[in-house]
Specification:
Length: about 300
Amino acid sequence: MSTPRTILVTSAMGNQGRLLIPRLAEAGCQVRAFDIAADPEALRKLGAAEAIRGDLLDDAALGQAMAGVSAVYHLGPNAHPREDDIGLATIRAAKRAGVRHFVFGSVLHPQIGALSQHAMKLRVSEALLESGLRWTVLAPAHYMQTLQHRAAFAGDPFRLTWSLDRRQALVDLADVTEVAARVLIEGPDTHHAATYELCSGDCLTAWQIAEGLSALLSRDVPVLRVMPEQVIESVIGPDPDPARFAERVRLFGKVADWYSGHDFDGSATVLRALLGREPTSLAQFLKRDLAVWRANVAAETTDA
């Protein structure tokens, strides 16, 4: 098994980038981290050999980032209105640089045309297939980490933005990161032209998630449906640009509308095979995250 000499990770300051960089570095890869908000010191502490601050729509910055790269792991910026343009620019830059392997972080069921974020990812996947590059697409379900479960840890209701009766396919971001690292390290000789749907097998309604929280916390956890802007503020944080925030609310509102009308199911078959074990269940994730949350609360109390 050969290890790529240098791997470029885009959107490296995001949740997945910060999990992936240490894995790649520990495997002996040279990681080049690229992000519009790159913090070089923080990225180097994670294991990045290089950190580049730049805009993914800047051809010059992309050219610099791609120079000498063997593989690219491209993650589009979260809820960006030009995510497809960013993906296409990144593919063009990789092709110009002669990148050996392009791995794209997509989403489960990108063919849902009513969801613009899915449609943009589908457009990027199509361009990647037509690019002549050797490629792999990862298509994860909804990340467990983005559930509003920590509010329940603190005694509040479990909150969801769409119908409480619809099923949602879930996956642990740590499992997705493990697969991404494996694909990048093993390379295109093993993973070229593969699209991997990544789901834990837990496809749950809000009521079922609340049941799991109730069992874990030994108390009844109520369920509350909330507005998209409340979720965006809690997940992404306040946005100083009102127009950008309004666009994110609009896009997330369309997501909530679709999920309210349809179940979003997924299979664990592919993820199980890639991990060589059972995927992390929601119950396992919640137990693990509760321990982290309690440790953080204890540390904050000590500091105070």
